[in-house]
Amino acid sequence: MPQMMPLSWLTLFMFFVSMLLIFSFMNYFSFIPMPESIKKSLKIKSLNWKW
């Protein structure tokens, strides 16, 4: 007996591509930008390395 094939390779491919797209869209649109006031209050301290 030959090996069992999935229902259709194209269907399987479309399923995984759609899951990838849905996952990517969810990650992209779930990002909440910080307000400008919070951004200004965060200061990045730069370190000057002296060798």
From TrEMBL:
Keyword terms of this UniProt record: CF(0), Hydrogen ion transport, Ion transport, Membrane, Mitochondrion, Transmembrane, Transmembrane helix, Transport
Localization terms from the record: Mitochondrion membrane
Entry-linked Pfam families: ATP-synt_8
Gene Ontology CC: mitochondrial membrane; proton-transporting ATP synthase complex
GO molecular function, one term: proton transmembrane transporter activity
Transmembrane feature ranges: 6-29
Keyword Cytoplasm: no
Membrane topology according to the record: Single-pass membrane protein
One of the GO BP terms on file: proton motive force-driven ATP synthesis
Entry's family note: Belongs to the ATPase protein 8 family.
Subunit structure: F-type ATPases have 2 components, CF(1) - the catalytic core - and CF(0) - the membrane proton channel.
Entry protein name: ATP synthase complex subunit 8
Species: Panchlora nivea
Gene of this entry: ATP8
